[in-house]
Amino acid sequence: TGQTSHTPCVNVTAEGPVARFQSYLHGGTSSLVSTLPTVIVFPVYKTVFRQQIHNTPVHQAVGQLYKEGPVKLYRGVVPPLLMRTLNGTLLFGLQDSIHHQLSLSSQNVVSASALPALAGFGAGIVEAVVFTPFERVQNVLQNGQNDRQLPSLKSVLVKLKAQRMSSGFYRAFLPITVRNALGSSLYFGLKGPVCAVVAGQGLSPVASSFVSGTLTSMAISLALYPLSVLVANMQAQVGAEKKGVWLCWKDLWRSRGRSVALLYRGGSLVILRSCITWGITTAIYDLQKKSSD
């Protein structure tokens, strides 16, 4: 299904176990390369996080980070670096494997054009199971209010281990699963068609993939941004009251004055981060995939 190997937009299912293994390898490699932009834009991400938690304008969030100093600026950068590399390996590889199985078992049942999105949905669920603990640790580390009580990564891990799974490492698992499953489904379902449209404008294969990844991830980030805000607020504290998803959402909506604009505070910076990281990841992955076909 999807595009043939000579087109710039790669959306094919690899044949054979070796070829499918390459999808894991290509996904990991492309994400590893994009960790450099992740480090560069980490202060941007942390600024967004502070806006999500404290509902502050961007200049106040920047002021908080400036006062804390350069050492604490990169506190919490290790989990996203690990997540970027492992996430790409798992996400692209699993999507390709699931896509392959679906194409064999669902002939004439599911439209071929819908298979990438369906496979992405399944990969997103597995992604949530594996990476929710990483995100939990990252959000605890990034919350400046935890610096005194939990000064190191080890102290955070020990504290979370002492909690129940649902309130410790897997706090906010449900909204993360919804966000990741929908996001992965939309990404794999849209990036091929978007890339084909962009390529039709005369751009090079690499440029087409980059623009496709950028536009797709931008749209997804904005659509699912409220879920990311909810997750950040649910995961930032350790040992606080253990409200459920619905009550946490009501508290969040109330704290934002029932304003969509305030709920999306920091959303413009998410666009910047998505443009850099997912644009590069998509371009490198498609280039590697095309070269190996």
From TrEMBL:
Alphabetized UniProt keyword annotations: Membrane, Mitochondrion, Mitochondrion inner membrane, Repeat, Transmembrane, Transmembrane helix, Transport
Q: Which residues cross the membrane?
A: 169-190, 210-232, 262-285
Q: Name one GO cellular component term.
A: mitochondrial inner membrane
Location in or out of the cell:
Mitochondrion inner membrane
- Source organism of this protein record: Salarias fasciatus
- InterPro entries the record matches: MCP_dom_sf (IPR023395), MCP_transmembrane (IPR018108), Mito_NAD+_Carrier (IPR052465)
Q: What is the protein's given name?
A: Solute carrier family 25 member 53
Task: Enumerate the GO terms in the molecular function aspect.
Answer: NAD transmembrane transporter activity
The similarity comment for this entry is: Belongs to the mitochondrial carrier (TC 2.A.29) family.
Stretches forming Solcar repeats: 22-101, 111-197, 204-291
The answer, when asked if Transmembrane is one of the entry's keywords, is yes
Bilayer topology: Multi-pass membrane protein
